[in-house]
Structure formats: C-alpha cells, structure tokens
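yo

u said u wanted the structure for the complex thing, so here. seqs first:
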Amino acid sequence: METYIGPDPALSVARPGNVRLSIRDVEAFYGKIQALRGVSLDVHEGEIVTLLGSNGAGKSTTLKTVSGLVRAQRGDVQLEGASISKLAAHEIARRGVVHVPEGRHILRGLTVKENLELGAFTVKDSAVRRQRLNEVYELFPILHERRHQDGSLLSGGQQQMLAMGRALMHGPSVMLLDEPSMGLAPKLVTDIMRIIKRLNEAGTTILLVEQNARLALRLAHYAYVIENGTIRMQGEAARLREDESIVKAYLGMGD
Amino acid sequence: MTWYDSFLQQLVDGLVLGSFYALVALGYTMVFGVIKLLNFAHGDLYMTGAFVGFGGLSLVSGFLGAGWLGIFVAMLLAMLAVGCLGVVIERVAYHPMLGAPRLSILITALAVSLVLQNAALALTGGQYTAFRTELGFGGFNLGNLFLSYNQIVLVATAGVLMIGLELFVSKTLYGRAMRAVSIDKDMCRMMGINVSAVIAVTFFIGSGLAAAAGTMAGAYYGSIWYFMGFLIGLKAFTAAVIGGIGSIPGAMLGGLILGLLESFGTHIPFIGSEWKDVFTFSILILVLVFKPTGLLGKSEVERM
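structre next:
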C-alpha cells in the first residue's frame, strides 16, 4: 500500500457504552519477527467489533495477545480499565474473556458433552453448569443429538458450533472469535453469523476476526482494518461497508 | 500338579507381578500424556516409595503393627511424600525445560534418575534393607491352586487404586481437564484451566501410585535396595508401550499382560527364569516394530 489512509476522523463516531476491552499500542513478536507494531483498538460494552485484514496482517495475533497466548512486549491490554497483559492465559479466561480460536480446537477423543463441560471448568456451581449445558443444547440442537460422539469427528460447521457452545459454557463477558466462518458452506456461514448476532443481542461483547469482510461488516457495529501489524483504518461498520474503494483496497475483495 | 494347576499358579503369580507393573506404568503413561516426557526417573520414585514406606512402617508399627493395616498407613504416607517429591521434581527439573528440545528434557529425566539412585545409595550404603513385616503365609486352596492372602490383598489394593484413578479421570471435571491438557494445552488455557496445576496434580498421582507399588513390593518381597527401581522402571515403560503410551487403560492392560507373559515365559520348557528379562524386552522390540501405537493407543505416536 503506498498511500496511508489513517484513522479517518470522519468515520470515527462517539460509540455508546463503556469501553470493555482496550488494546493500547500493543507490540508482539514471534522470535525476532514483529507481528504487531503498535495495535490499538477498543471494544465497547455490547458491541460486535470486527478486526479485518489479509492473511498474516496480525489479526489472530491480536486476539492471542488479549487472551494471553502471546505476550505483548510493549503496550497494554485492559479489561474494564484493569491491565490484563501480565496475567497468565487461564487467569484472563477466568475474568470472562473467552477465545474461540481459529481451527476450533475441539478436544479429540472427548465427547461433545465432555468438550462442553470442560468449557465450564471454572464454574464451580454444578447447577449453573447444568443450566448452561441445557441453554447450549437449546441454541445448538445438533450438539444435543451428537452429545455422546467424539467431538473431533463432527463436521466443520458442527465443530464451530461446539467451539462456540463450549465458550458459552464459560459464561463469557467478552468473546474473541477467530475466523468462525472459515471452511464452512455458505448456508452454515449464515447460521453461524445469525448465532453470533443472537449472542450479542443477549449481552455478549464480541471481538470478531474475519477474512470474509463483507459478512463481518454486515454483522459488526464497528470495524478496524489491520495491515502489517498496525491498525490502518477504523470506523462504523455501516460506513466502511458503503465505501467500496476502501473495501477493495484494504480487503482485496474486488468483485 | 497337573499342567492345568501349574497354569493357574502362573496366572496368579502373573497377576501379582502385573499389578506392580501396572501401577508403575500408570505414572509413566500419565506423565507422558501431559508433557510428552518419558520420565526415566519414574522407577526411582518407586524405589523411593519403598524406602519411605519402610520408614513409615517403622514409625507406625509400634501402635498399628506391621501387618496389612500398618503397611496401608505406611503406604499412604509414602504416596503422599513421594507424590510431593514428584511435584517438586517436575517444578525444579522439568518445568523450566518444557520449551527446550525434547532430547534435553529426556536427558534431564535420566539425571533425576541418577540423583535419586545415588542419594539412596549414599543413604543406605548400597546394602539390601530387610523390609520386615508381620505378614503371615496364610491362604487357602482352590482345588490344587494355593492363593495366599497377601497376594489377594495386593492385587485387590492395586485394583482399587486403578479403578479409583480411572473413575477420577473419566468422571470428574478435573480428571477430564487432565485428559484435555494431554490433548491441547493452549485450548485448556483459553478455557481457564491452570495447565501447570494440572501437570503438578498428574505428577502427584503418578508418583503416588509408584510409591504405593514400591511399598507393597517391599512388603511382599521382603527386601529393598537403591537399585530396585531401575529394572521395574524399564519394565513399566515396556508395559506402557504395550498398552499404548498415553493411554491409562492401556497402562493397566499392558502391566497385566507383561506380568502374565513374564510369569508364563519363565516356564517355557528349556528356557530358564534367567531368560525372563530377555523375553520381556524382546516383547518391547516386537511391539515397537509391529504395533508402535500399542494395544489401546491412538495414532500420532511421536518418535523420541
């Protein structure tokens, strides 16, 4: 990209709700390779925020610095104003930030039900665990049907549902979704997107990483575009969606 | 005795031997499951367990006697102490190495094994220590088969420990977390599971089971020494490989199979008991060649 399109003040608007999750100037490395070069973004309470960008731009790494799988060398990640960037990954999860990773990471050899129950590992009250299990089964009837099967033998779409159901078992306040539509048939993509919308309407704050930018922009309230480890653009999703040139230039989606 | 009676007697002996192998193999396989380490110090934890159990028995025998009750209490003490030792070993020696190449941590395990062996050597002077108990020689005849009470108690105790472990791993949330850690550590972290704590618990249980086997073996065979963990460590490893390393039911099955094979193997005509270990380790080689995943193991065996 030759021309730099900075965060355009015209696209930034006052966003409702308090800042739930805040990433401030985060830099992260894989060995000597710098993956993030000062990423800053905010997720407000009740929002779906999408982080867009091409392969290798730093989308997944950004999520991993939030969930603690990758350490931020510089910068800070804050959850409701308190820094979480020094915490171990499991402690971050216990604060209600749940990461649904790319590739779903279903625990092979464990049944669908066991996978779900482990999602509620930190929930000490077994009545709450049972209730959440029922809620997840209600949301994804197919998981109930397949509850005794090895979770890793489900189809891609069902695995995505399992991964999301497992995250819901945790009772998350912030969900980090990494490429939930990856490798799914169009019909399933629509289903998954509808579920994300439903979860959000039920009060879950969501940070969504997607390669399918059109889809993500339809779903999200606010969007950031990352390129080479820095945020190149941000704005209301509705506005970004209308600006075809931006979408084409940054997201490589010329029709 | 007919060949049939002899067969039954070998079966019983094999079960006793197999129980020891199985208990030790469980620790091998559990530790391999969570951190993919062949813990070559595991046999020495069995030896340490025998000595701690011996010490424990001399402590409690004054008021509990040195029969099975005293031995059980001593065994529990040994399980607790050696369990903690296992956790300390993991923290001090293995944990800092988890990011290092696999060969480094394997060599660390060998070093830990030598440390434990030589510590025991220094403390005991390399002498056999008599493990005195008040166990009787009672038993009963079943047809021509003689079953001693000691054998029955021993196999039953091992069975209870193994069933307890299996229930813990398959029925409790923490046990499932243990299985999950052996599959995908990062995913566990994302679900809020403290992976380091689960690894510590795994070491505690594995080491405790080895200590239980050590105490019982000491009491059953009547003498212990600093080098007693070496061979059983290798055999338990063999048992774990036969069953499929990483698989808990596999370790139990492998232990029992190995015990039975050894028991019968020593009675093959023209092959004396001095060939026993040749027989055992030939089986290891055969399994590694023809079924490297073991009887109950899943695919994806990683080469060391």
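Chain B touches chain A through 18 residues (CB under 8 Å). The radius of gyration of chain B is 19 Å.
cya
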